[in-house]
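Sync notes, pocket subgroup
Present: LS, DG
LS reminded everyone that the earlier model was apo-only. Rerun requested with inosinic acid included. Inputs:
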Amino acid sequence: MKGGKKYIHFITGNIHKFNEVSEIFNKSNLNQKYKLFHSNLEPIEIQADNLRDVAVFKIKSVKNKLNESCFVEDAGFFVDEPLNGFPGVYSAYVHKTIGNEGILKLIGEESKTCAHFESVIALYFKPINEIKIFKGEVSGKIAKKMRGNHGFGFDPIFLPDTFPDKTFSEISIEIKNKISHRSQAFNKLEDFLKQNL
Ligand code: IMP
């Protein structure tokens, strides 16, 4: 605690994720009570068949290295049609290897697509020594080609249902934060912190 504010650490190696979350945090009145920190600790990342298990393992691997509350976030990109949910929990590896171009090739000429992002935040809440889970999800479709300059990862090919003509890379961080999987999960974390001030 410093200047009457409690610290909360977002443990991530992804600066885009941190920027998205801090944009929400800075607008919230929670910033009167908390200070959000970007922590670059390297949590252990396991391969599991669901995001929750990955996030829980991650937070357990680092929670005792900090003296304050901290959280990690794990996300996945699921192309439900026509790829039956691929890449899902393999999203990071698939993005690193075949990338957006590879996903577009796999989809080919298929005109009907359906996809979603999922986000799972695992918070270690120090005052009660407990791990809390918050989830978010956003649905959409896949663009025919990569479009836009904002964001990261699969943003250039994802058309959210709320703005079906724009990819996540064609909208600002502020707009993405109104609808994204990550913002929904983080809003739930904020509600939890507000109720437990
Ligand atoms: P991670 O394991 O949570 O870092 O994310 C898995 C993969 O999904 C990575 O390749 C990310 O680039 C991608 N990803 C996660 N969140 C988003 C997002 O909000 N937009 C686009 N891609 C994302």
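DG: The pocket of inosinic acid is lined by residues 14, 74-75, 77, 91-92, 95, 117, 151-155, 168, 180, 182 (CB under 6 Å).
LS: The CA atoms of residues 74 and 84 lie 20 Å apart.
Action: DG to write up.
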